[in-house]
Amino acid sequence: MKQYKGYLIDLDGTMYNGTEKIQEAVDFVNQLHQRGERYIFLTNNSTKHPRDVAKVLNEMGVPAEEEHVFTTSMATASYIAAENPNAKVFPIGEVGLIEALKAANLTISDTEIDYVVMGLDRNITYEKLTVGALAIRKGAKFVATNGDVALPSERGFLPGAGSLISVLSVTTGVKPKFIGKPESIIVDQALAVLGTSKEETLMIGDNYATDILAGINAGIDSLLVFTGVTKQKDLTTVKVQPTYTIDSLKNWAQ
Ligand SMILES: [Mg+2]
C-alpha cells in the first residue's frame, strides 16, 4: 500500500451519517492525528462556518480545529477573490457563505453586483432570486458553491444547492461556474492549504459522483468508503474506478 502524507476527508456519509458518528472513521482520524499526519475535512456543505463544523466533530471525538475544515464556501470566496479582489458580490446562501465572502475581503452588495454567488439557502425568497436573476442578465458573473441536487437527511432527500441554483440558471439561461466537489478547483485549493503534493495526498469519501470524481478530476488517489451514498454495485457502471474501496475505515491500516 502506498504511503500518503495528506488526507482530504469528506464529512457526511464518511465521518457521520446525519447526527450519528461513524466510529471507525473517528478512530481513523485519531490515528492520523497521533501520527502527526496532515488532514483536512473537505465539504460541499456551504451553510456552516468552519468553526461550527469543527465543534460538531469535536463533540463526536474527532480531533479538529477550525483550520482542519475547508468548505466549498471558502473555496468559492477564494476563487472570486483571486479573479477580482475588489469584486462586489450578491450572495444567495447562509452564514457559511456570507462569512467566507467577508473573510476574503469581498464587498457584499445588492445594488452594484459583479458576481452572483449561490449556495444552499434554506431561507430562499422570490426577491433574492429576482435580484440575482436581474444582475446575471445585466452581465454579473454567476458562481455556485456546488451542484448537489439532493441533500440526504433523516426525512429523506431534500432539495440541495443544485436544485435551487437551477432556478436562476433556467431563468437567465446562464450556467454557473461550480466550485465544489467534483470540480478540481476545491481540491487544488485544499491541497494548497494542506501543503502536500498531489502524489502524496489521498481523497476519502462516500460519494463517487462528488468525492471520488473530485479526486479523479484533480489527479489524486481516492478511497471510496461504503458507509454512505455509493454502494459497491454502483461502481459497475462507472468508467474510472476509485484507487481503493473499503467497507469501513476500520480496515484501512497503513
Ligand atoms: Mg459524503
Mean pLDDT: 96
Radius of gyration: 18 Å
Identify every distinct bound molecule in the structure, by name, code or SMILES. Answer: magnesium ion
Oligomer: single chain
> Low-confidence segments, ≥5 residues, pLDDT <50?
none
Q: How many structural units, i.e. domains?
A: 2
Class by alpha and beta content = alpha/beta
Run of helices and strands: EEEHEHEHEHEEHEEEHEHEHEE
What overall form do the CA principal axes indicate?
Answer: globular
Share in β-strands:
15-25%
Query: What is the helical fraction, as a range of percent?
Result: 25-40%
The biggest sheet amounts to: 6 strands, parallel
Overall CATH class of the largest domain:
Alpha Beta
CATH superfamily of the largest domain: HAD superfamily/HAD-like
GO molecular function, one term: metal ion binding
Binding site for Mg(2+): 10, 12, 206
Family: Belongs to the HAD-like hydrolase superfamily. NagD family.
InterPro entries: HAD-like_sf, HAD-SF_hydro_IIA, HAD-SF_hydro_IIA_hyp1, HAD_sf
